[in-house]
Design brief:
The chain has 223 residues and is an all-alpha fold. The chain contains 8 helices and no strands. α1 (8-30) packs antiparallel against α2 (36-66), α2 runs antiparallel to α8 and α3 packs antiparallel against α7 (161-187). It is globular and about 50 Å long. 39% of the residues are buried. Bound molecules: retinal. Residues 78, 81-82, 85, 114-115, 118, 132, 135-136, 139, 178, 181-182, 185, 201, 204-205 line the site of retinal. Retinal binds at residues 78, 81-82, 85, 114-115, 118, 132, 135-136, 139, 178, 181-182, 185, 201, 204-205.
Length: 223
Amino acid sequence: MTLNPGDYAGFSFFIVSMAMMAATFFFYIERDNVDGKWKTSLTVSALITGIAAVHYFYMREVWGESQTSPVALRYIDWILTVPLMCVEFYLILNAVKKVSSGILTRLLVGSTIMLIFGYLGEAGVMNYWAGFGIGMVGWAIVLYEVFLGEASRVSAESSSESLKSAFGYLRLFASIGWAIYPIGYVLNDPAALNIAYNIADAINKIGWGLIIYVLAVRDSQKA
Ligand SMILES: *C/C=C(C)/C=C/C=C(C)/C=C/C1=C(C)CCCC1(C)C
């Protein structure tokens, strides 16, 4: 496979694959530095970046050989990692206050609709823009839960500063961080779309894991 100067999408596949691998080791090893109730969250962070790293190794091959979007690999990665991000969010809420599992169900349903229809649109199984439109409805379900639904109320009632702060960051990721993906989709150009998705994955998977890590370390030092 080749990586030519000027192939910025190719560079971004390489950089993000290495970053995902390094982040995986980091989150896994750093479990030792946090309290018990945070350990599962760091394990899940390591799983998310680990699953992504393996997919990135394959995706960069596809891109390097054909300069086409690795659509199937991309969505297999997402259908595994996005539910884990929902679980992680739920674990964080639960670490401080017992919450109903309905929150997790709604996050999973919304994000699954988002990904299934994004895939159907990108793979050409259905109209590109129809897939996009229904995918946006799925994302709206997630945003509703996080900004207006039960999850947002639980956080507002909580007295834990670290929970509130984690929750505030989660909102930023699920709104601004996740918005990079539909922007990439709308660009509808193989290089631009993949650069957008790669940057978004680095921010949302590694960045989100790091936020949880920092909060977990702070919370553990207090105790
Ligand atoms: C680790 C991977 C993550 C966090 C992937 C997130 C993906 C999205 C937020 C995708 C969003 C899309 C829409 C909102 C509309 C349809 C097109 C998608 C699937 C790109």
